[in-house]
Every structure is written in C-alpha cells, then in structure tokens.
Amino acid sequence: MILREGSKLVYHRLAWKEPFAPHLLQVLYEDDDMVALNKPSGLQVLPKGIFQQRTVLAQLQWKEWKMPPSSCSKRKNVQLHPVPVHRLGRGTSGLLLCAKTKLAKVQLASYFAEGAANAEKKRMWLLNP
Hints:
One of its GO terms (biological process) is enzyme-directed rRNA pseudouridine synthesis. It catalyses: a uridine in RNA = a pseudouridine in RNA. InterPro entries: PsdUridine_synth_cat_dom_sf (IPR020103), PsdUridine_synth_RluA-like_CS (IPR006224), PsdUridine_synth_RsuA/RluA (IPR006145), RluA_PseudoU_synthase (IPR050188). Keywords: RNA-binding. This protein has helices at about 55-60, 70-75, 100-125, and strands at about 25-30, 35-40, 85, 95-100. The protein has a 4-stranded antiparallel sheet with strand order 1-2-4-3. By secondary structure, the protein is α+β, with helices and mostly antiparallel strands. It is extended. Strand 1 and strand 2 (about 35-40) form a beta hairpin. The chain starts with about 25 loop residues before the first strand and ends with a helix.
C-alpha cells in the first residue's frame, strides 16, 4: 500500500515475555564512586535484542544507592547515575565495575583506556623487542 500525505501508519507489536535470566547481583565492593559486582553468566549487561529489562543496567537503575553522609557534605549536587564502566558478554561471569556518578564514569573509563593503551604498547614491545 502506498501511503499518502496525512496517512497514519500504526504498528502493533505482539507482546513478548523476556526469557529467564539470573537477577541476583552480589556486591563485592562499594564506595562513594563505584560498585564492583559479581555478574553471573546468563545476565546481559546492556539492553539488546530480547533482553530489555533483565539486564545489569536496569538493576543498577532500580536499586536505591545511598551516598554516605560524609560524601554529601564534600560533594554538593552529586546526582547518582549508575552505569557499567565496561561490558561482559551475557554468557560470561565475573567482576563488573560500575560507576555511581557521571564523573566516576569518565574517570574509570579513562583508567580502562589508559590500561588498554599500555597493554598494547607492551604487546608490541614483546613482538618487536
């Protein structure tokens, strides 16, 4: 069918139920800026495909993270913005670092980038001494 100007196109998506995924996240470490989680195998980190709600990101956003009173006096207007700093595949279990604030995300991401750059330099040195 060819649509004409002023036509209205409506798409009715069938409802779907997300498949089972582990949902318990063990907190291994937490401070004012970050949280280290033990991510189980089978849990997706970011929404994609058939997993939109059963993800680490969704759980981070649902949880009520508390900032200690000491940090509130030091850092005015700090808004919580919990996000993973890196990704582990859905089938991978392991340590997942998550930032609690936008500033912490930038800092932790730069540490990862710096570490990756140093690892690449070391690898190139080992290949070409």
